[in-house]
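Sample intake sheet
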Amino acid sequence: ARGEPVEASLGFSIGAYAALLAAGALTVEQVVAMIDVVLDASLGIAGPFGMLAVSGATVAEVSPLLRPGEAELAAVMQPSQLLLAGKAGAIHRLADEIASTTLSVRFLSVRWPLHTSLMRSVSAELDDRKRRVGRLRPLRHRVYSGGGGGRIETPEEAWRLLVDHLHRPQRFDLALDAARSDGVADIVELGPTGTLARIVSWLTRGEVPVARFPQPAPRPRAKAGRAGPQASLPGAGAEGRARRLALRPPAFGRQLEALEDEGRRQALVDCLEIFMEAGWTAARRLLYRLPELIQ
């Protein structure tokens, strides 16, 4: 879309479909066929299931608490930012166990425990239905993903990635490492959220420039006497804002007002990173809590 040549594509989790589609290995019809098979097979998995987002703990620290078939590691976004998934009861118990020792724990109710062994039967069904999906084409460029060893270059490797990523943990950090070792020095994130752009910036400490396409719409500035950028959301506006701030100490309310300005937020992040490099551990805790505080 920007008129520049694409040398590689990188996809995380379900983004592997988009990455392989961009590389020419899959057609849109094949993606639809695969999703249809996966959804049909997933109906046979009994829930409920849950996912746990953990910030401030490494894989080594969390691994002793995991139980195969109950609560497992699903993804590593950053070395100390993990996703755990499994049966809802086990995930709830795990949250209670680690809540006192980590910086941030958030439970999410999910329909399927992606990237865990509980999805192995779905992977097997997809592999058996390969004929329905059809033959994958040669890749026009390399694909990097959190599964399959990070680097995908052949149709055979692409198929294994699509099958195995359903029941194996995903490592975005390893995919990025593989891309950087191959000389990838400029990344464009397709989509409106900017989630992967922030993670890439964090993992590379800003060494790899990341652009976003399409560019995010500029946020409207708050006007005196009116609600801020979130005024159009339910529960926002002056009345909703008063209700939210009434639940917090006044000083904390003023801090949140300052955080609404994107420039101030970035300045705070830069400041905390400087203190982190100097060895101030409290800065790390504050930095991980920043998204939660803003929300």
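Comment: The chain has a mean pLDDT of 75. The two ends are 33 Å apart (CA to CA).
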